[in-house]
Amino acid sequence: MLAQQREKTLGGIRYVYDKSEVLQPGSILRQQDSEVGANKDTVVTVVDEILQKRIKAIMEERLLVMESERIMRQDVDRHEVRDVSVISRAQEETRRLIDLALRRIEEINKARGRVQELKAIILQEYDLVVSRVMERSNELQQTVWTQKEAFIKAVTDMKDNKLSRLQAQDAELTKLIEELNLCAAVNEALLDIEDYKTIYKFFPEHELQLQAALMTECQTTPCENWKLSISDDDTVRVGEMIQNFRFKEAPAQAKQKMTVGTGEMERGMGKLYAIGGWDSGFNLQSVECFDPQMEAWETVAPMICRRRGLCAASLNGCIYSVGGWDGEKYLSSMEKYDPRVGKWILDSNMSRERCYASMAVLNGKLYVAGGYHEQRNLDAVEVYDPRAGAWDVCKSLTVPRRGFGLSAVDGWLYAVGGWNGTHNLDSVERFDPQRDEWMTIEGLSCPRSSLCTAVLHGKVYAVGGWDGTKYLQTCERFAPKVRSWEPIASMGAARSYGSATAMLGRLFALGGWDGAGGRRLDSAEMYDPRTNQWMPLPKMNCPRYCVAAVAL
Length: 552
Known about the structure:
Elements: E1 5-10, E2 13-18, H1 25-35, H2 40-78, H3 84-202, H4 207-218, H5 232-235, H6 238-244, E3 257-260, E4 263-266, E5 272-278, E6 283-291, E7 296-300, E8 311-315, E9 318-322, E10 334-338, E11 343-347, E12 358-362, E13 365-369, E14 381-385, E15 390-393, E16 405-409, E17 412-416, E18 428-432, E19 437-441, E20 452-456, E21 459-466, E22 471-479, E23 484-488, E24 499-503, E25 506-510, E26 524-528, E27 533-537, E28 548-551
Antiparallel strand pairs: 1-2, 3-4, 5-6, 5-28, 6-7, 8-9, 9-10, 10-11, 12-13, 13-14, 14-15, 16-17, 17-18, 18-19, 20-21, 21-22, 22-23, 24-25, 25-26, 26-27
Helix pairs in contact: 1-3, 2-3, 3-6
């Protein structure tokens, strides 16, 4: 700061001025060049302001010099200074300063001319930039429109192609549905062929009559092992063939009929067993059997243990009953009944106690899943191999279930409905024994706990139960090939913790509770899928709640 100040002495008086107040000729240009920006208006405005400030500073400096000269003259007069040389030097200094100020003004004028030139250059460059920006904008706009048109055309073409593919897929799906319907019809025909095979098992002496009946029904010669062949020419007759292909068309010599309620049942082919349960007073170990020939229930050998909430199934000509509650403790034991011997024997125990579980037969093994034990609903699954005589653990259910149905179809296990401890379930899961894996599939039409399930003609039937508000008479069935549930006729009575099984092409439901009063049910009924009707059967010898039904 001190370096920028200059000191002058006039007649003993010091005059100090700041050199920074006087612009240097080159500084204004360097400063101007550094302040010029992209925006022309801003640059011009800044330059004008700088020039005005510098002019004002020079004028103020000139006034200051003149005022200094005036003061100096007054001081000289006051001190009666008569030294002409001093006055002359002061005048010369004043003139020098005035000349310096004039030169600065001249430099400023030159700088202003330079600014005007720069201003013209900036305006010219600005107009050039604007022109280039407009040209580029037009180019980009044209490019965007071109790409937009190309995109719209591509989307339209893709939409047309997708529509064509969807139409082709729709046609293919329609064809597949037709083939599926045809396969379903053929499957029904094959199931009816099974009826002829069953008749032949009991009436081998009528083989010729049965073959003749099959030739009449199928309009073709039966293949070896009683398999049904359908040629291309037969395809158009499948619908008519299925409509006419009924068990009742078999030769009269090959079967006999007996009346049961309002339905009919073939003689000499299977019996229905009602095992254990609760009769409103005691847990039961008793077992009774329905014989179509006798049109009545008869008592057979009782189990070794009392069992309520047990599960049972038939395998290799024997009946297995597993788990349950005997009134004091939950059971893990298993019993086996051979009707040829007429006696129950104990077999291998499960790995854990369980009640209200469910059991099914798959690939020659017994699978037991879910259930209840000590205030806890179970998701555990185990399998029994009768050849090894031992139980093994499987993959657990995806959710705990008790009072549910377990059925086997086409190499899969299906766990249907039940109670998970907080909610009645409408969910269904399927077990793949090859992968040891459960997978959730299409659910029931409504929640069902304490229901019973059975398999008939390759379909899973869900019967009765409790939906959380009422006891159910309604029933529905699941077709694995089309993966959907459909309703069927309702039972004659609501049934909770009853049991169901299938034989002779019919579905049987028995026991349980309808929610009315304290007495449990001793009734039984039979469903015919061909007429979609339930028919009453003779009553059991005693009420049975939490019972197990097995066909053998």
